[in-house]
Amino acid sequence: MFEIDLTINEPFELENGDVLDEVRLRCSIFGRLNPDKSNAVLVFHALTGSSRVGDWWKGVIGSGEALDTSELAFVCVNYLGSCYGSTSARELKNRLGELPVVTPRDMVRANALLFDHLGISKFRAVVGGSVGGMLALQFAVDLPELSDEIIPIAATPLSAMGLALNHIQRQAVRGGDIELARKIAVVSYKSPENFEAKFARRPNRNGEDPARRHDHRFDIGGYLDHHGATFRERFEIESYELITKAMDLFDLTDEQIRRISATVSLVGISGDWLFPASDVRALHQRLTRLNIRSNYYEIESDDGHDAFLSDTVEMSRVLKEILKREHSRPARHIADASRGAVFCIGGISKAA
Fold first, then answer.
1. Is 130 a catalytic residue?
2. Fewer beta carbons within 10 Å, N or C terminal of the chain?
3. Average per-residue pLDDT for the chain
């Protein structure tokens, strides 16, 4: 893995009109870029992910895996507002005096500043799951010349149910309870079949007896409490609020869709009720009606929305099917432009 911290020393205007005096981005690259950078694949991470895609997509990325690092170089950026190396929501709040609204378009535009400095003028493909899939679609709309293949996984504009769940989570977050927000999210990421198979009505595995005390839990309760407690230690509350709001705002008009020039390979998950496979198929049909080259694939899994992370066998099967036709197709290149910035590679600053 090769990791870069990039500080962009130029004003960056958000869609809401707020101006940032600088933006910091952390980027990780898995695999080796070839001399002309034509083997680069862009990965957008999910809500609580980081740029270190090898950490959270084990079994999918690596030498000989579906995302094959022996052939391709996978570039992942911790997007603006997240808290794993890039300018975080907490920093933005401190600078501006309040938490700004950062849109998917803002995140994609910020990432694009980094591509110029990496010398990447076109990506072989762009892939992302959940929020990452939203950003992949936004990328296809806003930067249509930068890739010929877009692979959004379990991603569509949020339904009313999705908006409702995010609303409740942000209410919990504003009350300082990120643990509760995370528990709500985890429930939405799993299917009923998954929970029943793993937990059923068993008492908590620590020996508690729900029939004896009010505070004694079933096993599912202990599982959710554990996820909430560990999440507080690893994720900033402001980033959770900012990114879930960005999720809410993601939408696609017909006019925006018509800007897409890439092939869009949409992936649904059979057991997903947060982004139902039927909604992903409907988006595929809409793209097709608007004359966009679109394909639909489906992960067969009871893992729920999380299947793109947890069911590595099915995820790998689908990605291999999509990418096999892309590996032999050379990417067309466009001229790159330079912007004033500072690289920080391994802690050593270098002029870009």
1. yes
2. N
3. 92
